Every structure is written in structure tokens, then in C-alpha cells.
Amino acid sequence: MEQAPGSPERPVTGSGLPGCYRHPDRETGISCVRCERPICPDCMISAAVGFQCPECVRTGAGTGHAPGANRPRTLAGGVQTADPRLVTKILLGMNVAIWALALAAGDRFVEALDMLGLAVGTDGRVIGVADGEVYRLLTSAFLHQEPLHIAFNMLGLWWLGGPLEAALGRVRYLALYLLSALGGSALSYLLAAGNQPSLGASGAIFGLLGATVVLMRRMNQDLRPVAILLALNLLITFTWTGIAWQAHIGGLVTGAAVAYGMVHAPRGRRTLVQWATCGVLLLVIAVVVGVRTLQLVG
Hints:
Pfam families: Rhomboid. This protein is an all-alpha fold. The protein has helices at about 55-60, 85-105, 105-115, 135-140, 145-170, 170-190, 200-220, 225-240, 245-265, 270-295; strands at about 45, 50, 120, 125.
């Protein structure tokens, strides 16, 4: 007998794994990304990310409803779209465009936007986040100079961003990216030298890497490939000179925390928990920036 759609009951087999909601005698570790009911291979229907159950596919594909009603949802509750990489493409385009602009405009453009605590600029003016230029926390994450630097970051953005955008939805994915960038800048601001400039999207990319680990674990997928990638990136972070490891670690931790709140939020309070998670992390970033500012100007 099939359970009614939305039923919270989960039949459990002798091994402790849940049984398929349509075939209780078949144990499974896979759940529908929309309703989270356990589904066996015979009931799995491929979605943009993961699998959906027959009922969710049927109700999501219906016609004659009000706009947005019964539209297929992502794992995190966002609306599935025809182009699950749109935000990733826009972010990639913005990074490339700003890189080209930096090459054309020269050092003064970079000096006005890079991550800097407190220093004296080439024109003799005091500049930096501690002097009120808090926008640098974000603008620096879209700024590159070296071709290899932007090439590696954009490769990571494209490879990691698409699946995450499909799993979270556009708005949640954008929040993940921006908070990861801010988290990386904030830790760099807190721990790095106050007059040492830095730039690049690496903090945001590490945030996507941390979020990928959380997402794959949530979906019971093999973590070994992404774990190896994370280990290699951390090795490079701490062995190569000239890398702002603080931004990498700040982005990684922030991205993982955002993703955890996104994909583990209870369905009944999903939106509230997700945005509360983002709000708390934004508050933590603000506190870190405030503390460091007091250290530099006090």
C-alpha cells in the first residue's frame, strides 16, 4: 500500500535503513530531494540534482495551476529552473569583466577595491576597511590580476557552482557565494597584516567547496573525490607562498555553515531556518570586522 503524499512515516528494515515508501521491504539510503521520503531504484526518477519520487514528479509537472504552484523544488526548497547555471554564469562573467577592467585601468583601480585593513595609499591618503571602506570586503572577491589566478578560480566556480546552484536554487546559491566571499575577507582582515592587500575569489570558491562536501554528505554520495580535491587545495594553501590562507579558511568554514543550514533545515520551518542561518553568519562577520577595526584604530 502506498503512503499518502507528504506522509512523514518512514518504514524501517531489519538492517536499520529506511524502506522505500512504496516498497517497504526494500531498504534504501536514497531519499526524494523534494519530499525526503526514502525511494528504491524502481521509484527513483532523475532530477536536476539527485532523484525524485513518482508523486513529486507527477504533481510538479502538472498544468493548469497558478504560476509557481506545484513547481519542482530543489533539495533546499528553491524553485527548479530551466537554466540551473544562470547565476554561476553571471558571477563568472562579472569576475572576467572586472579582471579585464583592472588590466585596462591599472594599479589605481586595483588599489581602490582590493582587501586592505589600513594603509596609506600612493596619493598619501589613508585607505582601508578600518577607515570606513567596508565595501572592500566584497569588491576584493571579484578582483584579479594574474591570468592563472582568475583561470583557476573561474574553473572552480564553474565546476562547483553549477551543481550547487541546481541543488539550492538561485537565491540561496547567491547567498552562499556572497557570504563565503565575505567570510573569507573577514578572517583575512582579522588575522592578516593590516596594510597587506589581497584580492581574488578564492574565499568564495573555498566556500563552494565546503558547501559541496555538505551537500554530497546530505545526499549520501561518495565523498572521496571532493575530499581529495579539498585536501589538495588545502595543501596548496599552506605550502605555496603568496596565498592568503585566511581567506581560504574563512570562506571554507562560512560556506560549509551556510550549506548545512540550507540542506538540513526542517521542512516545516525551512525558509526561516535557512535565512536565520545566513543572518547569524552575517552578524558574526560584522562582529569580526568590528573587532579588527577597533584593534587597528584604537
